[in-house]
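Please predict the structure of the following assembly.
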Amino acid sequence: MGVNSVYKKWLAITALLASTTIAKPTPRSTIPIIRKEWRTLTNPEKSSYINAVKCIMSLPSITPPLDPSHTGVLTRYDDLVYTHILQTMSIHYVGHFLAWHRYFTATYEQMLRNECSYSGAQPYWDWTLDAADLTSSPVFDPVTGFGGNGPFVATVPGPFEVPGRTGGGCVVDGPWAGINDVVHLGPGDSYTYNPQCLKRDLSPYFAGRYLGMNQTLLTLAEEDFGWFNTRVEGFPSFEASGVHGGGHYGVGGTLGQMGDLFVSPADPIFHLHHANLDRLWWSWQKLDLANRLVDISGPLLLMDYSMGNSSLSTPLSAGPSAVNLTVGDVMDIEACGTVGTCYTYDSLYTL
Ligand SMILES: *[C@@H]1O[C@H](CO)[C@@H](O)[C@H](O)[C@H]1NC(C)=O
Ligand SMILES: *[C@@H]1O[C@H](CO)[C@@H](O)[C@H](O)[C@H]1NC(C)=O
Ligand SMILES: *[C@@H]1O[C@H](CO)[C@@H](O)[C@H](O)[C@H]1NC(C)=O
């Protein structure tokens, strides 16, 4: 064997070793990380979370450029907003609504940790603590939170006017005040580049009506998954909402991103709200864990009860940011397997 071929062999082995090292996945934790309520974080913990959100908003998108018209997908943050927009009609008012959003927020949590050096877990917003006085919620704190309401902007009264809305303009304080291109996508299902400020349109009335402990306990008391899920989502009417709509319309009203079915993840509060919906589902599962780790039903497509039910094998996709899973893979948040979720909550709702 000539020197040259020995050298080539050595190069090949080195390359193989190098690629093995690079391809080795980050070791997955087998101990669930613990999600805590926003107001119980210390100020340094709050600021490290908000810095991680700003970081993920500054990293470049990884969405493959298959569709040249998706010019609004610029950042890693946009990757998730875009994923939500594309799947809106198949992830709301369906049986896998909670499972899909569980995976979506867990994907975001992993992005913050793996790509932005965040060392905590995704915080949740326990809105039952604020339902009686929404505007004073610590999540809207201008210094330690996500900023508050926008100035009042009148809308044409009609079916889309969220009762009790008080804002609608760009946020005037907090980390995203004074920035005109926080949001790149929407409104609605539009994904061509459209720079917008972050808007909030708080409705203390709506939050009071649907985010209190009374509504939460009514939901928790449902006896099977189908009815539990229906209670969480409510119906698409401001007169028959649930805790899900309570958070979206309580914060986003008519004009804020949180009130937009498609582009709602553009407001970082989305993930604190959905973490708490997930906590409510886990609270419900824990009341009868053996049965409720496998209890899943409800339409496969938006409110279409004729097409069959979601099941443990219904696929879930969080887009290019994570591998595809099934509903069954996320039923146990503490499973910590080779795929799926690995987190838990510091406290749960009880009946
Ligand atoms: C919960 O309390 C709020 C505020 O008093 C009220 O508007 C709402 O109708 C109540 N919900 C239920 C389900 O009782
Ligand atoms: C979906 O599941 C529900 C509850 O288990 C059941 O009553 C219903 O018949 C199922 N629907 C279809 C279309 O299979
Ligand atoms: C994941 O699922 C989505 C939606 O069904 C699909 O478009 C995508 O190609 C899948 N990705 C992989 C890697 O299989």
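The radius of gyration is 21 Å. DSSP finds ten helices and six strands in the chain.
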